[in-house]
Amino acid sequence: MNITIIGSGYVGLTAGVGFSHFGHSVTCTDIDAAKIEKLSQGVCPIYEIGLEDLLKENLQKGTITFTTNTIEAVKNAEAVFFAVNTPQGEYGKANLTYLLNAVRTVSPACKPGTLFINKSTAPVGTIEKIREVIREARGDDAFFVASNPEFLKEGTAVADFLKPDRIVVGVNHPNAEERLHALYRPLIEDGIPFIATNIPTAELIKYASNSMLALRISFINEIADFCELVGADVNEVAYAIGLDQRIGPHFLRAGIGYGGSCFGKDVKALALSGEEHGYEFRIIKALATVNDLRYRIVIQKLTTHLGQLKGKVIAVLGLAFKPMTDDVRDAPSLRIISELLDQGAVIRAYDPVAIESFKKLSSRAHEIVFTSTINEAFQKADALLLLTAWDEFKNMDLFEVKKTMGGTLIVDGMNILDPHAAKNAGFTYEGIGR
Ligand SMILES: NC(=O)c1ccc[n+]([C@@H]2O[C@H](COP(=O)([O-])OP(=O)(O)OC[C@H]3O[C@@H](n4cnc5c(N)ncnc54)[C@H](O)[C@@H]3O)[C@@H](O)[C@H]2O)c1
Questions:
Q1: Kind plus residue range of the DSSP H or E element containing 115
Q2: For the domain with range 296-430, which CATH number is right: 3.60.15.10, 3.40.190.10, 3.40.50.300, 3.40.50.720?
Q3: What is the C-alpha to C-alpha distance for residues 433 and 235, in angstroms, rounded to an integer?
Q4: Which ligand 1 atom is at minimum distance from the Cα of 32?
Q5: Is pTM beyond 0.90 here?
Q6: Where residue 386 falls among pLDDT bands split at 50, 70, 90?
Q7: Inter-CA distances, 203 with 91, 170, 199, 273, Å
């Protein structure tokens, strides 16, 4: 099928490369000319395992092309996907400006019968707004709309797209369902559940899914805080409750709270969406509050041991919001480092892949010493602060680290080190809830 994707970021690019891998003819577009230039040359602008290889393979086969000319790109499309950013807007509402602008711009250039599919995360009712915008821009009703939320995870985006847990589509016409079924046929034939439902249900599934995951994180973080008061170990609590098949083991890692470009904004957008419909999401609001306060915990642990932080050297390991990605959008590291700088600490920061994206996003990057190796970060540090669960950090030789550091404090915001090993190496170890 001829498809065009509007927006070539984490979702649009992965979906574009994935659909071209399935044999569809894909045109990916973006307003960012530098991004399109790189992609046309087979260079992936984001760190995502396997994406560049698959991109190059399909560029060579000629099943994927890239352009900034969105109008030309949609002319022959049978389906147009929107995968643009829907950031947090005023009061926490989803900002649909980019999405609706993109719809308004391209829809008049599309041929009659085009299927417009929203892949961006957007509240219930957005497809109705999209339909209105298209109707107004085109002056006709000769088109179809559908919701197809995306569930990929950064760090494993390609694997998630090629082998998702499920495909969800929200449709109100058999034609739209048939076309989406055809688009995902290779996956459906492999036994991946294809859930075709009504449009509000599909839109809500995405928000409910992200909120459930965020809830598990805030839940275990509250358990962690209580563990510290009563001498319990949250890692063992999480392991044991996760063995209960009704609960399961995922998303029960206590730490510094969730980050990334999705959970924070989606949880708040769901709460706001509830209010707009006269419904108060009490649990959703509480889980967001728990997370918003989370960054303080590691600062408190540092000050408990080091006192005033002015002039203290903190080696920060990990800037990305999670391992296997260079994405730092809404990463806890941004807020924690900013607070440490406010208190006068000297920051030496290391991340295997996210330093450049951190520099682009943080207004305080010039106040930080970024190191190109992990060992340089430890130099004369009073404390080691772990903020991302990269494997490289789990496997550090703590005896060697101790020799390089000036101090003896480790604050492990992700609970990835063995407390006994840290103590044996001569460190004071502070984890979360253990
Ligand atoms: N990142 C994730 O892990 C993830 C997972 C599932 C869903 N989502 C959702 O998918 C959507 C996209 O997220 P993302 O992380 O890929 O965002 P992103 O910021 O990486 O990419 C969005 C892209 O859209 C482009 N764009 C904006 N307006 C455009 C226009 N008018 N025409 C063409 N391109 C335009 C931007 O330049 C950008 O490159 C969001 O709604 C997000 O919530 C994200």
A1: strand 115-118
A2: 3.40.50.720
A3: 8
A4: 37
A5: yes
A6: very high
A7: 21, 7, 6, 12
